[in-house]
Structure to design on (541 residues):
């Protein structure tokens, strides 16, 4: 199937049409440890929550200079332990408690991996704190047989991967999140929003803990009680947050969610009835998907500059492979060849495991395609050969493997150029404006082929103070100068260095051994405020 996405926002749909799926992982840290110990399917068959060979499991970390429980598994909760409890107290209640040091970075990496896996349902996936995800499934449910079947598929797969997960689908992010985290219904229609939200506690509205406590002191403990209360007194006493969160959950106020990744311009995918195992099969599918995207690119009058291949493994791991093109590209064979070059480098990293079940090709960046007619005289297109070479090198070694100097709008030597990837550099130099700039560039003195990363100070002796040097000492070697040419004075860029920055007088010199250097004197003798200093900046051939 092929789909095109043109918007990078998720806030343009009416509340009655939007469908937001919220995933809440209440035991993500302990599930991470259990998956490592007992395998991904440790929760199967359904209802299995413990392993007989291991004691109750908890994670602990330092909170406010004290070791406290940060996560518990189901068995540990049966002993009456709670998150936030002191570690010493928890050990006194359950002497067999297995305590593992909390690792928030590993938990976040696991959540990011689950978010990548959720791309199989929708490209609009956003993080929801440290233990949840938001998926905008608007217009996607029919691809999986309806909303109920999509939710069942998500629940079944995540449980098989060893996660405890709570799922809810609603017309707004606030309502879906509240129901997934506080026990509401799984699928809520827009007309059922108030009825689903009313029995939940006020904490379900994502309010600050202090605000929840203050509302409880005046008898407002559930959303239904907050709905029945007059709005002006609540706003005056507790601020705008309670009513704003309530209106967002009910769809009265808009609430955008931002996806983790930019949406692809074009996308094509293939769901496989039988998993594939080899790289050749992946490349064949990539070529077929590229053929499906070619028609869409032609309709837009564009070619792809950046392609992304997503390969979903059966066990939930997702591989993202990106390749770039030096010129807009539509040719199916060339796109396949780029991924072949890239996979030749990632061969050991692309572990098929039990096979790949889904392959998707995205166009992340596109540009206007300039169709060129072949030369009638039969001359070879050297430009085409160059772009092929650059694409192959970039795909195999990375875009930074080949870099070219690109001129910048500065006369200061260390700022006059920068090294850019060869594909971007050639594109910049090929623009008519760039060629005009080269012709119109002001005349200046010769420049060395090699510049030091940073000018190095040297000791110079000269016949007259403001004349050319007669000899200089650099890196403990004294060099006598045979010839000198200069000076070439460069004024500082006052808008960068400030108005008090000293100018430079550059000299091209040759020593008695025939070596040629580029030296400059920073500062002027007629200005007594600064003592001039000599530096070596480059070397001529």
């Amino acid at each position: 199937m092929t789909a095109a996405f043109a918007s990078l926002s998720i806030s343009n749909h009416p509340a009655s049409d939007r469908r937001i799926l919220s995933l809440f992982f209440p035991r993500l840290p302990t599930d991470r440890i259990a998956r490592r110990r007992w395998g991904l399917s440790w929760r199967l068959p359904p209802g299995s929550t413990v392993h007989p060979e291991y004691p109750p499991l908890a994670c602990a970390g330092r909170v406010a200079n004290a070791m406290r429980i940060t996560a518990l598994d189901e068995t540990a909760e049966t002993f009456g332990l709670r998150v936030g409890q002191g570690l010493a107290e928890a050990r006194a209640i359950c002497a067999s408690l297995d305590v593992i040091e909390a690792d928030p970075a590993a938990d976040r990496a696991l959540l990011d991996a689950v978010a990548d896996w959720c791309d199989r349902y929708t490209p609009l996936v956003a993080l929801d704190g440290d233990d949840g995800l938001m998926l905008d499934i608007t217009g996607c449910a029919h691809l999986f047989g309806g909303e109920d079947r999509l939710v069942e598929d998500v629940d079944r797969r995540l449980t098989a991967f060893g996660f405890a997960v709570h799922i809810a689908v609603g017309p707004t992010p606030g309502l879906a999140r509240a129901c997934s985290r506080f026990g509401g219904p799984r699928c809520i229609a827009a007309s059922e929003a108030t009825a689903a939200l009313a029995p939940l506690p006020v904490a379900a509205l994502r309010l600050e803990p202090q605000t929840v406590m203050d509302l409880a002191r005046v008898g407002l403990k559930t959303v239904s009680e907050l709905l029945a209360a007059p709005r002006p007194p609540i706003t005056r006493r507790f601020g705008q947050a309670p009513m704003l969160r309530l209106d967002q959950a009910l769809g009265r106020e808009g609430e955008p969610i931002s996806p983790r990744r930019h949406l692809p311009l074009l996308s094509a995918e293939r769901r496989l009835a039988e998993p594939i195992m080899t790289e050749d099969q992946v490349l064949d599918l990539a070529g077929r998907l590229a053929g499906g995207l070619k028609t869409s690119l032609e309709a837009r009058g564009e070619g792809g500059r950046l392609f992304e291949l997503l390969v979903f493994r059966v066990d939930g791991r997702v591989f993202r492979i990106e390749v770039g093109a030096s010129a807009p590209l539509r040719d199916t064979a060339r796109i396949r060849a780029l991924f072949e070059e890239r996979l030749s480098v990632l061969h050991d990293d692309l572990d098929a495991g039990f096979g790949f079940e889904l392959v998707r090709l995205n166009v992340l960046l596109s540009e206007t395609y300039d169709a060129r007619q072949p030369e009638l005289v039969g001359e070879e297109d050297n430009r085409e050969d160059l772009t092929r070479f650059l694409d192959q090198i970039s795909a195999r070694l990375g875009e930074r493997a080949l870099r070219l100097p690109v001129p910048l709008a500065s006369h200061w030597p260390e700022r006059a150029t920068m090294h850019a990837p060869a594909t971007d550099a050639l594109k910049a130099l090929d623009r008519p404006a760039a060629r005009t700039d080269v012709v119109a560039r002001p005349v200046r003195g010769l420049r060395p082929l090699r510049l030091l990363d940073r000018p190095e100070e040297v000791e110079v002796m000269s016949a007259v103070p403001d004349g050319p040097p007669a000899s200089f000492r650099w890196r403990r070697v004294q060099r006598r100068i045979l010839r000198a040419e200069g000076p070439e004075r460069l004024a500082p860029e006052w808008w960068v260095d400030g108005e008090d920055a000293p100018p430079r007088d550059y000299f091209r010199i040759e020593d008695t051994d025939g070596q040629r250097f580029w030296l400059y004197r920073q500062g002027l003798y007629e200005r007594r405020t600064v003592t001039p200093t000599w530096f070596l900046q480059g070397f001529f051939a």
